[in-house]
Write a structure and sequence with these properties.
The complex is a heterodimer of chains A (112) and B (112). Chain A is mainly β and 112 residues long. Chain A is built from no helices and eleven strands. In chain A, the strands form two sheets. In chain A, strands 2, 4, 5, 9, 10 and 11 form a six-stranded mixed sheet that branches. In chain A, strand 9 and strand 10 form a beta hairpin. Chain B has no helices and eleven strands. The radius of gyration of chain B is 13 Å and the shape is globular. In chain B, strands 2, 4, 5, 6, 9, 10 and 11 form a seven-stranded mixed sheet that branches. A four-stranded antiparallel sheet of chain B has the order 1-3-8-7, with no helix packed on it. Chain B has 112 residues and is an all-beta fold. In chain B, strand 9 and strand 10 form a beta hairpin. The chains are: A mainly beta (112), B mainly beta (112). Chains A and B meet through strand 4, strand 5, strand 9 and strand 10 of A and strand 4, strand 5 and strand 10 of B.
């Protein structure tokens, strides 16, 4: 059972435009969400997070939106830069335990 | 450098051999996690330590896998009698709080 889903395996965006990466979840007990960025041959790097008590969290060029009723979150990157090209994972910690459940990732390519 | 470190970065072994990986967490972090990532998937939880106590193990962690964290500092993950299906990236993460995990660069295992 894939509790965290990223249905777009890849996304290409022109440099300077907005990148929007989507994530859906099925477990209504999730109350905190994280986005990680991963370059090839490196571990995931924490990017931004959001608690379920908020519907938006912003950090520089990165904004995460949470729609609890739709069980959907999205990561907006604006303006997109070539260094943003990476695989992005959304993740959620399971309620009552320590493990993170990850989506399958979206490969973002920024076109110069 | 105060990040999570893993050694070795790459390991090639023959089927049936034993391998051991090491993870050094961020020094003040009491929580340490192991994940496995295969191609096209997000990281999957394997096991978790709080200080030296192993508190949770995934069903993915068969009896050929063992993890230790002596003295609550570094951790080792051993795989006995490796199989080709064990080929993956093995990621270690550490945290102070359960919902902010910081990952190391990973150990890529190839079983021939």
């Amino acid at each position: 059972d894939q509790q965290v889903k990223q249905n777009s395996p890849s996304l290409s965006v022109q440099e300077g435009r907005i990148s929007i990466l989507n994530c859906d979840y099925t477990n209504s007990m999730f109350d905190y969400f994280l986005w990680y960025k991963k370059y090839p041959a490196e571990g995931p790097t924490f990017l931004i997070s959001i608690s379920s008590i908020k519907d938006k969290n912003e950090d520089g060029r990165f904004t995460v939106f949470l729609n609890k009723s739709a069980k959907h979150l999205s990561l907006h990157i604006v303006p997109s830069q070539p260094g943003d090209s990476a695989v992005y994972f959304c993740a959620a910690p399971n309620f009552g335990n320590e493990k993170l459940t990850f989506g399958t990732g979206t490969r973002l390519t920024i076109i110069p | 450098d105060t990040g999570v470190s893993q050694d070795p970065r790459h390991k090639i072994t023959k089927r049936g051999q034993n391998v051991t990986f090491r993870c050094d967490p961020i020094s003040e972090h009491n929580r340490l996690y192991w994940y496995r990532q295969t191609l096209g998937q997000g990281p999957e939880f394997l096991t978790y330590f709080q200080n030296e106590a192993q508190l949770e193990k995934s069903r993915l962690l068969s009896d050929r896998f063992s993890a230790e964290r002596p003295k609550g500092s570094f951790s080792t993950l051993e795989i006995q009698r490796t199989e080709q299906g064990d080929s993956a990236m093995y990621l270690c993460a550490s945290s102070l709080r359960y919902n902010e995990q910081f990952f190391g660069p990973g150990t890529r295992l190839t079983v021939l």
